[in-house]
Task: inverse folding
């Protein structure tokens, strides 16, 4: 038996649960940076992008990512593979990629999923070992329809047309529609030019200046942002991307006290569009966003992407 867990925190808790089998820790952040329609070991361009934007050293990332996919390939020889993921955007992207890869390369004899909502379990890596182990007997066997749903969801996510996610019907796999809602909310808003995460960042800093760790805790307490599953490395990158909208009292975001600039407050209050002062250079799934006029924006009032 092989347990595939999303992150070291879950692996640490699982080690105390007394379950049989080996553990493969999935550490990639496939909701950040360029991705391919056919998931697998990353291209050098992805490693370089993550190094530049998330400050993840490219060579170390490439080694770790290739080791993950090799571990999944070896996992096909196990009698059962159990996938442990949470119902948030980060976990969903990783899960879809794994299911797409297994659908293409062959699934093990038994493939099971443990995929609690955040209302059921606040986080697989923060509950105690007894509670985590208690989820194991209720694991759900994944039928071919679930593999197909994962392939469809990954293809839509990696597509150059972000609206493709709205057409994915995946009754066999939970949280698909909600994950695409999070994905679409990361596009710049028609109202402010900010993603919903950036809007939440500026809103929290407008209430009071905060150090990065305090900002992270405040955002994690917001259900809408919690569904993104965003870690501190991702959040730090998003704060850096805000550029002239956020002032730092130190050289590094992670150790700085953060506050909105005058421009940031103007954007937050609807007097300016963020894209006027902060051209984009970003990847969201298979979509490259560049310049002041990206091809897609998010209409939060209507809950849909629109061409810009």
Result:
């Amino acid at each position: 038996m092989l347990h595939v867990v999303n992150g070291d925190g879950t692996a640490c808790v699982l080690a105390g649960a007394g379950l049989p089998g080996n553990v493969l820790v999935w550490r990639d952040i496939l909701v950040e940076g360029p991705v391919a329609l056919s998931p697998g070991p990353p291209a050098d361009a992805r490693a370089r992008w993550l190094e530049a934007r998330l400050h993840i050293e490219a060579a170390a990332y490439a080694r770790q990512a290739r080791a993950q996919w090799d571990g999944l390939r070896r996992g096909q020889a196990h009698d059962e593979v159990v996938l442990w993921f949470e119902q948030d955007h980060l976990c969903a992207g990783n899960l879809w990629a794994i299911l797409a890869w297994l659908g293409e390369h062959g699934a093990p004899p038994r493939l099971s999923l443990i995929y609690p909502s955040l209302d059921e379990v606040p986080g697989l890596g923060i509950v105690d070992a007894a509670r985590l182990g208690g989820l194991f007997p209720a694991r759900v066997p994944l039928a071919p329809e679930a593999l197909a749903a994962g392939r469809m969801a990954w293809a839509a996510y990696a597509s150059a047309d972000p609206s493709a996610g709205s057409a994915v019907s995946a009754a066999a796999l939970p949280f698909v529609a909600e994950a695409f809602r999070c994905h679409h909310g990361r596009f710049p808003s028609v109202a402010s030019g900010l993603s919903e995460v950036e809007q939440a960042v500026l809103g929290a800093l407008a209430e009071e200046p905060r150090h990065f760790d305090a900002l992270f805790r405040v955002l994690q307490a917001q259900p809408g942002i919690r569904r993104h599953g965003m870690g501190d490395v991702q959040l730090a990158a998003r704060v850096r991307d805000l550029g002239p909208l956020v002032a730092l009292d130190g050289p590094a975001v992670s150790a700085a006290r953060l506050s909105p600039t005058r421009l940031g407050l103007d954007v937050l209050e609807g007097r300016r569009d963020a894209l006027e002062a902060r051209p984009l250079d970003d990847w969201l799934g298979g979509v490259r966003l560049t310049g002041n006029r990206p091809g897609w924006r998010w209409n939060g009032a209507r809950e849909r992407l629109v061409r810009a």
DSSP finds 13 helices and twelve strands in the chain. The two ends are 48 Å apart (CA to CA). The longest strand covers residues 2-6. The mean pLDDT is 95.
